[in-house]
Design goal:
The protein has helices spanning 168-199, 210-220, 224-239, 248-258, 263-283, 288-312, and strands at residues 2-3, 5-8, 19-20, 24-31, 48-52, 69-70, 73-74, 91-100, 105-112, 117-127, 132-143. By secondary structure, the protein is of the alpha+beta class. The protein is rod-shaped and about 120 Å long. The chain starts with a strand and ends with a helix.
């Protein structure tokens, strides 16, 4: 058994009787610490703090004082759980060697108290299976952080579901209006982005003007599918709308919006050609004579558009 001379660290001397629950403080001890080894910090898993104490004696049994000894030293874990010292009075957090060696050094014990009260710990010992260190008498006071004049406030109980003065039907209506307004804002944005992406799909012109490109395509297109594609690409380039992606009804509706002043002039022939193309694609029964007739009507529409452009003075 070794005995250390211990005292509260200087920086905590003024607070030793005014500590609060959970506040860390330190003791410094000097002497020989068998089993400390060469390391700077002690492995606390093998050590246990104990001290001389008394608890109220049980009925028909004598009071328990101190701890049982083995070879003159208290045995680690020798007491039943209900007779051990309160571990929350003083708990060792860390032991480190500040200077010297295990045979003669200065050691610092960082400790904390969780139990409120004025504690007078007698014959404090630090035990392991191989060693027993006497730290002597330690005294300190731990105070509660709760002020006595301010009692602990009980937490609020369950408040239950909130009641709304507004009927749920009105809430649902407002939510529906909000969703509709949001859709009204976002839908045109998505539509513009989609149309821009569709227009970017158009292949580059081989001729200088859309009309010239269509004239060239009509000389080479042999199938109704090819004529339909060439005509819709012409409309897309001419009127800056994705006619190759729109239905015939959508194309005619956009033409009215874009060319409202002149749409009545060429709306009828354009409508006739577009619906003839739709019927040809649906049946796939057009012979060469039908295809040539369709090409001829497309050329007439081109001539009509050229005359209208000349009147407007635009290419």
């Amino acid at each position: 058994m070794s005995e250390l001379k211990c005292g509260v660290s200087t920086e905590f001397a003024s607070q030793i009787n005014d500590l609060t629950v959970g506040q860390v403080f330190a003791y410094r001890c000097q002497g020989s610490w068998p089993g400390f080894g060469e390391q700077d910090k002690l492995d606390l898993s093998a050590w246990e703090l104990t001290h001389d104490f008394k608890k109220p004696e049980a009925q028909g049994a004598p009071a328990v004082g101190g701890t049982p000894e083995v070879n003159g030293a208290p045995a680690m874990g020798g007491l039943p759980e209900d007779q051990k010292p309160d571990p929350y009075i003083l708990k060792v957090l860390q032991v480190q060697r500040l200077e010297g060696t295990a045979d003669d050094g200065v050691f610092e014990l960082q400790v904390v108290g969780y139990r409120v009260g004025n504690h007078q710990m007698k014959a404090v010992q630090f035990l392991s299976k191989e060693s027993s260190l006497v730290l002597g008498d330690l005294s300190f006071t731990v105070k509660s952080v709760q002020k006595s004049e301010e009692p602990i406030q009980e937490p609020f109980g369950a408040m239950g579901p909130l009641s709304l003065s507004v009927p749920w039907s009105m809430v649902a209506l407002l939510f529906a209006i909000f969703i509709a307004a949001l859709a009204g804002i976002l839908f045109p944005v998505f539509q513009r982005r989609k149309r821009k992406r569709w227009m970017a799909e158009l292949p580059p012109l081989r001729q200088s003007q859309p009309e010239q490109e269509l004239y060239r395509a009509l000389r080479h297109d042999k199938k109704i599918q090819d004529i339909n594609t060439s005509f819709r690409l012409f409309l897309a380039r001419k009127f800056q709308m994705p006619a190759h992606r729109l239905s015939t009804a959508q194309v005619l509706r956009e033409l009215k919006l874009k060319e409202s002043s002149r749409a009545q002039i060429y709306e009828a022939p354009l409508k006739e050609i577009l619906y003839e193309l739709d019927r040809g694609l649906a049946t796939s029964e057009m012979n060469e004579a039908d295809l040539e007739s369709l090409r001829s009507r497309v050329r007439k529409v081109l001539d009509l558009l050229d005359r209208q452009n000349a009147l407007r003075g635009t290419p």
